[in-house]
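User: My collaborator sent over this chain with a note saying "see what the structure looks like." That's all I know about it. Can you take a look?
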Amino acid sequence: MFSPQRIWNAFTFTRQGLKSAWQTEAAFRDNVLMVFGAQLLCLWLQPVTWLWLMLLFANALLLAVELLNTGIEYVVDHISLDKHDLLGRAKDVGSAAVFMMLCMNALLLIMIGYQAWGR
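Assistant: Without extra context I'll predict from the sequence alone. Here is the result:
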């Protein structure tokens, strides 16, 4: 059932999660700055609307994947700071997911650049 208190709590937890990621994860800060830069580039290049929207959605997905990766890292580090093969793999897989999103964002930026300058 609809509960304003539950919505407020969810908003509060979201704000806390974003604040934690910003304060503790350099990669998250880097990705936020890259997203901001990519959107400024789009303001300058003025790509077609559908391409800009694709980049905007890819940027949001990049940040979401980075947040999930940060969550995985928090849990793994809570379990153990010792070297462990499976814990290391968990971190590596999360990192690979972020890399895949970075590649998708780069490809979209290349397409936007080609559309702007390749005509």
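A starting point for your reply to your collaborator: The chain is about 90% helix and 0% strand.
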